[in-house]
Every structure is written in C-alpha cells, then in structure tokens.
C-alpha cells in the first residue's frame, strides 16, 4: 500500500495517508533485495563468505578469486506474490466497525542473471575479472482493499486496488585478486538502473444513491539510476574456515517521477540518498558439508532527499519513519561428489526498513535447493524461497488495515565453465 493509504468511510469518502503512516514517504528501494544466484538463495541468501561462482560480484567481489575457469552464467526467476488485507474501516461515534477481508495474487517470471567471469593468467595466486547484469530488486506486487457495508440498512460497495510492477537491474564490473595465499581482495563498480510503475484504482458504488458512486484511477511511474562502489575481503585462516567482509558506498538515486490521473499529469525530479551497507560472512566446511552465515547492516534512518528544496524540508520526517536493520541469514550445503549433486537449505530474517510502528511481523523465511554438476562443465542449480511479513496501516476515525504480504520465489541458474 504505497503512497496512498485507502480509507473507504461509510459515506463513501476517501481519506489520504495520515501522519500516522508512511504515505508519500514510502520509498520502495529502501531495504528492497530480491537476491540472485540459485546456490546463494537456496542457502538463505548467504554468499559473503561462501560464494564460488559469478554471483560473487554481487555478494563479495573478493570471492571472484576462487573461480579458476572461465564461467558464463545465466539465470531466471519466478515469483508468486500474495496479499491478504484485513480492514477495520472506522466508524462515526455510535456505529460499530466491521472487519473486511480481501486477497489478491500476482505471478511474474523474469530474466534474472547474466554474468561472465574470466581468470587472468598470473605467476602466482589468482586474478579474476567479471561483468554482470542482475535483477536485484523487484517491485512486482499487488494489494486489494474491499469493503461491503450495510450497517445503515443499505449497501455500499467500495474497493481499492494497487498494482505495481518493475525492477532494478545492477550492472557490474568487478575484480577479485589474491594478495596472499589466504587473503583475497575485491572491488566492484556498480550502476543501478530500473523503472517502477504503480497503478491505483478506487471505486465506490452506492446502490441507493447512485450519484454518490465514483471511479478513480491514477498511474505513477518512476525511473531510477544510481552508482556505487563495493569492496570485499575474503580470508581463509585454515582449510575449514572462511571469513568475508564487505562494504558498499552510499549512493544517490536520481529519480524522475511522473504522475497522471483524470485531472492531468505532473512531473518531479529528485535525488534520494542511501546509506552505507556493511556485510560480514562466515563459512565452515568440514569435508562435504558447508555451513554458512551472513549479517548485513544498514541504517535506513539516514535516507534523505536531495536536489529538490521542496522535498528536502521533509528530511527530518523521512528520517523518523525509517530505522536501522540487521539482516541475518544462515544456510547449509551437503555435496555428493560421485553423483555431482548438492543439496541445500537455509533460513533468513530480513527486517523491513520502516519504523517498527508500521510493522506487525517482520520479514522472515526459508529456502531449499539443489545443484547438479554435469560432466564437470555445466552446473544446473535451482532454489525455492518462501517469505512473508505483515504491515500495519492506520488513518482517521480509527481506520486500520493489517496487510500480510507473502511470496514464493523460484531461482534457476545455469553455469558453463571451460
């Protein structure tokens, strides 16, 4: 329920988001991570210390140094997104509130990954350069509010639907190099680019007084572009343990927003600053088993508007609506070398970037997957990821919506190594 909080009152009036909710300050890029790489996503989204394929250019560029043959990687993703809304629409004094429920699904299949990693001949150690285009954020979602009310003896039928679609792609040039037998460093140059389309439809039907009925539709599109630098370190204290550290620089999203409805259209341009993102990972590999864990920290309360004086005056408000978050992920992999088979599983806790008063249940989920090595040159990998979270929306007259969003994602990756 982005930008517009739908409040369908008993008399058919719609109220916009109040100061009690994010409203127009909800930025969909904040904390948004779709993930990439079937191996990493099958292991809970871990990869800072455990990546060993082209997806390392995203998780930890230092891990590229572990790639010893030219690798070409392709990937697809599939998502089913579900929204269940429970609405307490609020009432004037003397009337009883009625709870209304609605649900809606959306399914999308998208291109996910194309990566190329090339080892450079060296006298000792390893030097690997890599290039990639990866879909790392998804805006695909839908939401529906529906209110049927007859508390005054006649029927009112209200609904509001939100449909959103789009992606952010990450274009990367990266390199990983061994600086000692057990330490690797990496650097990635990132360009983010994408588009978001948000369509809001609202309708109110009064069977008794038809003149009260109305329909409304608006469309908002946003174009995004930004750039950042990400550095990584990979250390191997011994044969069983690997430690990874990463840091990604702050960036400024350059955003062009276009809005249109029955009254006409408007356009606004602004910058949105994103904070540092710090990551740490640990992998333990006793024999055929790999256990791995990642932690990632970002203080989203440092998000701010720039290059638009009219919006910059709201930076204090924006800061109060966001919080710092610590993402925790864990995974396991067991290999069957004779069969070329690997089985994987993981869990993750990725808290939402919004202040806790807007959240009932934070984002949590699990993952499963497998990999199959064919003739030592082709790796086929798949992952299934399920996650969910519950948002809270409040407005005037005790209006409230509890919205549970859940998703099931499938990642498929094919890597060819020669």
Summed up, what is this model?
The chain has helices at 38-42, 56-59, 309-312, 315-320, and strands at 7-8, 14-15, 71-88, 100-120, 127-138, 141-149, 156-180, 183-206, 214-235, 241-248, 251-261, 264-274, 277-284, 289-299, 304-306, 324-336, 341-349, 359-374, 378-394, 400-417. With 418 residues, it is mainly beta.
DSSP helix count? 4
Q: What is the CATH class?
A: Mainly Beta
CATH architecture heading: Beta Barrel
Main sheet: strands, sense, barrel: 14 strands, antiparallel, barrel
Distance between the termini: 47 Å
Give the structural class: mainly beta
Number of domains: 1
What is the assigned CATH homologous superfamily?
A: Outer membrane protein transport protein (OMPP1/FadL/TodX)
Query: How many distinct beta strands?
Result: 20
Which stretches of 5+ consecutive residues score pLDDT under 50? 1-19
Sketch the topology as an H/E string, one letter per element. Answer: EEHHEEEEEEEEEEEEEHHEEEEE
Helix content: under 10%
